[in-house]
Design a protein that fits this description.
The complex is a heterodimer. Chain A is α+β, with helices and mostly antiparallel strands. Helices cover 37% and strands 25% of the residues of chain A. Chain A has 3 domains: 71 residues, Dna Ligase, domain 1; 125 residues, D-amino Acid Aminotransferase, Chain A, domain 1 (2-Layer Sandwich); 144 residues, Succinyl-CoA synthetase domains (Rossmann fold, 3-Layer(aba) Sandwich), CATH 3.40.50.261. Chain A has 12 helices and 18 strands. In chain A, the strands form 5 sheets. In chain A, strands 1, 8, 9, 10, 11, 12 and 13 form a 7-stranded antiparallel beta sheet that branches. A 4-stranded antiparallel beta sheet of chain A has the order 2-7-3-4, with helices on one face. In chain A, strand 8 and strand 9 form a beta hairpin. Chain A is elongated. The two termini of chain A are 38 Å apart. Chain B folds into 2 domains: 113 residues, Rossmann fold (3-Layer(aba) Sandwich); 150 residues, Succinyl-CoA synthetase domains (Rossmann fold). The longest helix of chain B is centred in the middle third of the chain and has 14 residues. Chain B is built from 9 helices and 14 strands. Chain B is α/β, with parallel strands linked by helices. The chains are: A alpha+beta, B alpha/beta. Chains A and B meet through helix 8 of A and helix 4 and helix 5 of B.
Chain lengths: 373, 292
């Protein structure tokens, strides 16, 4: 789950990392009122995506009037498909240096990874490309935490009061990452102010979806996913449905098999209308799945591809067939069933619809693609 | 990480609904389940097997070390279950649970590394050794899908892994073992680890490597594949998936160039692996490589 800057920064503040004074505004007038209090400010679009600056979503304002104008302009923008509903109005900070700092879950080292660069102010891909030598990578054993010695050795070339402040901030950043079950906790830029203190000018936080439950009400301040109406329906019911551009409807089980079904449709010259999987514990949702996939008006044929491991094909097929009369599919349907429960599932299909499963997935896919043309 | 017939297996969380169903299937197939663990139900019998309060208690009642633990407990209990299994001296742990917080995963993987234990998963469908035993949620008992043979199959996904084994068996090939590594972003056994295991396994003559978009495990495995003489064929799911979207598996997401289908295909082909556009093409490609 992604968090917008205004929802992420309080997490830094909670562990003692300084952030600029400011507040959230939903109109030009609200922005002007904030600017009145804090003086020269920066107005920043609040959307859960990067590259806001390049999209015109960040502006400096010297006066309340300017803040009003910039806020009104930014609030009318749409950035990477997200309409801007609020702006963060923050005090301008005189900067002497910009750094990049982040802690993330690293699949290669199977532990937390601290990333730091003395070259900040651009995104991490750009840093990795332009200044690969300047990027510090410090793998951390989560059982031991971030050790002061290791950090001391890892961070080179920064001296004086600035160094002490920086090391302290990195230690606190790690604390914020741990306490909030972060997948990523990133400060970019982390700046040194004229008095040597470090201040987080931006913050990007991604909460591990698997940890939402134990993080209490933290998820309430997360950014809602951008979902279509059907995608929201899928989420409410409890399965993953992603709407795509094509016309072959897909109902499958397991993430890997569902992606493969889409790949096969594409390989045989068709285009998938959706990703929809009812694997894992969702295999009892066959009925609801059939309803959602057929609610998409672009669907010209439906491919039902079940291959049971944990998900039992007899239970999934039973669910789909139960919904059959009610949903009354108006498009041709093609079945491929194999794995756990296949004999029972195929018998049900024969009894209820007089239909048979294709011997292989590829044959079912080819027939579904042909029918959608 | 292949589980062999004679190895004893402890099921942590055996009294749950899924665990009960699958423990019965495993026992029927020949897996030597000695019992299970449920801290709240110590002392009862379940499926005619003893239930202990901890893996440590289970270990005390055995003459020999327990070979393998199969973890099927709800997500909040996985970390303590794995640490318990490690303390009980178990050195092969297969975690089937989905949605385990990643910080917990990193914690017990660090402990497992120190103990020299092998962890498979989390979020894996398990391990199948046809004709011997299986540990997990896999239709090992379905003879259309699994028959003993010489093809090693590696897959993140259980459903797709099942399809590939089915295709192999229908084409007249057999399976030496299936290793499900799991769909999570941070997992114990990687594609490369599983590949190395099959490289050293005497029964395995050829390998089907089933990858997925996202992460860099396939690229990493390609480096090892370069050093191998056994033929490898591969299918990677997700060529038709739009970038920036999580496709069900938390690990299956393309960010920028990282994790893209094209990058993985290039790395594997550069290492001499045949990459095919659909899984049904794998058996013929492997047969050709095995005879050539």
């Amino acid at each position: 789950m992604n968090f917008e800057e205004h929802a992420a920064k309080p997490l830094l503040k909670a562990v003692g990392i300084a952030v600029p004074d400011g507040g959230l505004a939903r109109s030009g007038d609200e922005a002007a009122a904030l600017a009145e209090k804090i003086g020269a400010c920066v107005v920043k679009a609040q959307v859960p995506t990067g590259k806001r600056g390049k999209a015109g979503g960040i502006a400096l304002a010297a006066t309340p009037d300017e803040a009003r104008g910039e806020a009104a302009r930014i609030l009318a923008l749409e950035i990477a498909g997200f309409p801007v509903n609020s702006v963060l109005v923050e005090q301008q900070v005189p900067i002497t240096k910009e750094f990049y700092a982040a802690v993330l879950n690293d699949s290669d080292t199977k532990g937390p990874l601290l990333l730091f660069s003395a070259e900040g102010g651009m995104d991490i891909e750009e840093i990795a490309q332009k200044h690969p030598g300047a990027l510090v990578r410090l793998p951390i054993d989560i059982r031991k935490g971030l050790e002061a010695d290791a950090l001391e050795v890892a961070i080179p070339d920064i001296d004086g009061a600035e160094r002490a402040a920086l090391l302290d901030t990195l230690t606190r950043l790690y604390q914020a990452y741990i306490e909030n079950d972060a997948e990523l906790m990133e400060i970019n830029p982390l700046v040194a102010a004229q008095d040597g203190k470090t201040i987080a000018l931006d913050c990007k936080f991604i909460l591990d979806d698997s940890a939402i439950r134990r993080q209490g009400d933290l998820a309430d301040s997360g950014a809602p996913e951008k979902l279509t109406e059907l995608e929201s329906r899928g989420q409410e019911i409890g399965f993953k449905y992603i709407e795509l551009e094509g016309n072959v409807g897909v109902l499958s089980n397991g993430a890997g098999l569902t992606m493969t079904t889409m790949d096969a449709i594409s390989h045989y010259g068709g285009t998938p209308a959706n990703f929809l999987e009812i694997g894992g514990n969702a295999f009892v949702l066959g009925k609801q799945a059939l309803e959602v996939v057929l609610a998409n008006p672009r669907v010209k044929s439906l491919l039902i591809n079940f291959c049971g491991a944990i998900a039992r094909t007899d239970v999934m097929t039973g669910g789909v067939l139960e919904a059959w009369d009610e949903v009354n599919p108006q498009v041709p349907v093609f079945w491929s069933i194999s794995g756990t429960g296949e004999d029972e599932a195929r018998a049900m299909l024969k009894d209820k619809l007089g239909a048979t499963s294709y011997p292989t997935m590829d044959e079912a896919v080819r027939a579904a693609v042909e029918a959608a043309k | 990480m292949i589980v062999r017939g004679p190895e004893t297996v402890l099921v942590q969380g055996i009294t749950g609904r899924q665990a009960t169903f699958w423990s019965e299937r495993m026992t029927e197939y020949g897996t030597r389940i000695i019992g299970g663990v449920n801290p709240k139900k110590a002392g009862i019998e379940h499926l005619g097997l003893p239930v202990w309060g901890s893996a440590k208690d289970a270990a005390k009642d055995q003459d020999k070390a327990i070979g393998c633990s199969c973890v099927i407990v709800p997500p909040p209990g996985v970390k303590s279950s794995v640490l318990d299994a490690l303390e009980a001296g178990i050195r092969k742990i297969v975690i089937l649970t989905e949605h385990v917080p990643v910080h917990d995963v990193m914690y017990f993987l660090s402990a497992a590394r120190e103990a020299g234990a092998c962890v498979v998963g989390p979020n894996t469908a398990g391990i199948v050794t046809p004709g011997e035993c299986f540990v997990g949620f896999m239709p090992a008992f379905n003879e259309r899908v699994f028959k003993p043979g010489s093809v090693g199959v590696i897959s993140r996904s259980g459903s797709l892994g099942t399809l590939v084994c089915l295709d192999m068996v229908q084409a007249g090939l057999g399976i030496s073992a299936f290793i499900g590594i799991g769909g999570d972003p941070v997992i114990g056994t990687t594609t490369r680890d599983a590949l190395e295991c099959f490289d050293k396994d005497k029964k395995t003559e050829g390998i089907a490597l089933i990858g997925e978009i996202g992460g860099s495990m396939e690229e990493d495995a390609a480096e090892y594949a370069r050093t191998m003489s056994k033929p490898i064929v591969s299918f990677m799911a997700g060529a038709a998936s739009p970038p920036g979207k999580k496709m069900g598996h938390a690990g299956a997401i393309v960010m920028g160039d990282k994790g893209s289908y094209a990058g993985k295909k290039k790395a594997l082909e550069g290492a001499g692996v045949s990459v095919l556009p659909t899984p049904s093409m794998l058996p013929d490609a492997l047969k050709e490589r095995l005879s050539g």
